[in-house]
Amino acid sequence: MADFKIITVAELPNLIASGNAQLVDVRTDAEIARGRIAGAICLPLHLLPMRLQDLDAKKSTVFYCQMGGRSAQAAAFAAAQGLGDVYNLQGGITAWAHAGGNIVV
After folding, report:
1. Catalytic residue among 65, 75, 79, 86
2. Are strands 36-37 and 60-64 parallel, antiparallel or unpaired?
3. What average pLDDT does the chain have?
4. What pTM value is reported for the model?
5. Coil, helix or strand for 10?
6. 3-state class (DSSP) for residue 5
7. 22 φ, ψ to 5°?
8. Where are the beta strands (DSSP E) in the chain?
9. How far apart are CA 44 and CA 40, in angstroms?
10. Closest CA to 86 of 70, 72, 75
11. Fold category of 5-104 in CATH
12. What single-letter DSSP state applies at residue 67?
């Protein structure tokens, strides 16, 4: 399995503020409709193999889902395909919301 890093909800705002990060929400369209992290790219997990090339390889990529399981799969896949500086958001959007992170609809 390829290497990816874990990022916590406490660390994520600093990475976002750097301007060199892209957030990728790999949940289903129905889940995303309930809210997402502002600025996130919506890319359901099952479409990732077909759309991986659409991501900016020059930026750090943070995958997230509801709790962190699916996004770990996405991060592993992306890293194995050669995408550099890949992260999985620990605890997913649930942890983000519980920490007071902004959710947009």
Report:
1. 65
2. unpaired
3. 96
4. 0.95
5. coil
6. strand
7. -125, 135
8. 5-7, 21-25, 36-37, 41-42, 60-64, 86-89, 103-104
9. 12
10. 75
11. Oxidized Rhodanese; domain 1 (3.40.250)
12. S
**Per-residue tokens: 92:** 């997913």
CA–centroid distance for 10 within its chain: 15
Neighbours of 57 (CB within 10 A): 12
pLDDT category at 2 given cuts 50, 70, 90 is low
Considering only CA atoms, which of 39, 33, 44, 43 is closest in space to residue 101? Answer: 39
pLDDT digits (tens, 9 = 90+) for 33-70: 999 999 999 999 999 999 999 999 999 999 999 999 99
CB 71 within 8 A of CB 94: no
Annotation says 42 is catalytic: no
- Integer Cα distance of 94 and 67 in angstroms: 6
Contact present, 25 and 42 (Cβ < 8 Å):
yes
